[in-house]
Structure formats: structure tokens, C-alpha cells
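#struct-help
A.M.: can someone run this one for me? Single chain, 291 residues.
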Amino acid sequence: MAQAMRRAGVMLLVALGGCSAQRPAAIRAVPANPPAGMQYLYGSGEAAALSAQAWQGLLGYVAARVKARPADSVVLAEGARLDAPTFLPCRGKPLAVVFDVDETVMLNIGYEYHDASTGRGWNEADWDAWEKTGQGAVGPVPGAAEGLRALRAMGVTVIFNTNRSAANADATVRAIKAAGLGEAVHGQTLFLSGDDAMGSRKDGRRWTISARYCVIAMGGDQLGDFSDLFNADKPSPAARRAATMRPPIAGLWGNGWFVMPNPVYGSGLKGGFDDVFPMDKRWAPPAEGEK
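D.P.: on it. C-alpha cells below:
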């Protein structure tokens, strides 16, 4: 009897093993909470207020520039340096404002849900699929839809300069419209990675835009949305931070160049302890008994 039971048990284990081999992989549990940066950017009132604040400042600045008709744009000229900036002249061209798209005017809520819930992180295949099919799960950055309408009402052309792929231009046009940000036309008011030979670098596209327009303001969530010089020669995080605060570049923030918050991804999320916490600014509680 015992031998028969053992033999039956072995047969049951073999059968179960065969079944388990046919089972799909276990579904990964969705984390209880998304990463802190996503909580902040996509869910917090503070991020919404910060974005609205930036848009209010941008609209006030642009309204003043429309009246003043500036001689120079806010696009750095070819050959300029951050420590000696020169700007492209306007020469009577029509006025425009240039924006990055992702996390500057449009929130990629659906993609970041996918990222947070799967833990896969960014990968090119998923992002390409998102560009092609994600227009139903985007939203406007707080203040962006109203701000873009106000700019157009002033007679200022709104132009998007994004590192989304030129191969997915039609889908990006649909996503921009779905987010309530208005119309975009590839090659006229929408410029994409692949439009020139510079890849993800945007200066070439900025110069192309500036051949037709006087760019009186720019908005972005990464330093590269304003100049590729911030990323030249792969500077350390400390060097990039210093470059933003060194005159005369420091005077451009809120004065032609407008940054939107993005603690979720990008070039701003780099740096080890030595970059983030200088040695002379470190602290620990005193040892017991010490004052």
C-alpha cells in the first residue's frame, strides 16, 4: 500500500511539473506606490502650481517682448559659448516661442504608468510603441493648454522641438492635439529627431527654426532644450549645475528661458554622493555625550 502511494505521489509530481511548464510566467505585482518623482510630477498640487507659475511668468515675459519687438532672439548663435553667449538676430522676422513636448507641454502619464507598474524602466521598443499608440493616455502640463492659446492669441507662433522620432510624426501630431495643445505641422511647427543629422541634439533644429522666426522665448524640462552646450564633453553634474548659475546665462532663466519641473527622468537625475552632497556641507547627529 505504501509503495503504491509513493508511486502515485511520484506520478502526481511529474504531472504537476508538466502542468507548471505550460503555465504563463507569474504576473509581476504592481507596486503599492509609484516612484516619488512620479508622485510629485503627475499627482501633486505642488508640481501643478510650479508649472502654472512658470506659465504665468512666460506669458508676462512674452507679452512684453511682443510690444518691444526685440533685435535679438533667445537662441544661441552657432559658435557661441556659455561664458560668452551671442544670440541670433531677429531682423524683422515673425515672432515664435519654441517648446520641448514631453513633460514640458505634455505629460506622458500612460507611459510612466507602464514604467512604474512593470519596473521595466525606459527601453527603446516600449517608447517607440508609446509614440505610435499612446495619444489616448497623455495630458497637458498644468497651464500649458491655456498658455499656448494665449500665445497664439498674441499672434505668436507656437513651435514644438522634441526628440520624438520623425518616423512617428503623424502620431505625435495626434498626441499633441489629444492633449489639448492645438495643431502641429511637421516641418513647420513641429521638429523631431531625425529631421537633420544631429540626432538628439537640438541646436540644428533651433537654427532651422530661427531662419524663419524670431524666437523670443523657449520652454523645456532639460538643459538641452535650451542649448546643446550644456551637455558638450559630458560634463559632471556639478559642472552642469555651475554652468546654469554663471553670468550671463544665469540671467536667462525666467527671462527668455523657462524650465518646467521633471524629477522623473532625464539629464538632471545624475550624480553620486560627492556630486550632490559637498564635503563641507555634510552633517550627522553629534555622538551621545557631545555638544
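A.M.: thanks! The chain has one domain: 36-262.
D.P.: also worth noting: The mean pLDDT is 91.
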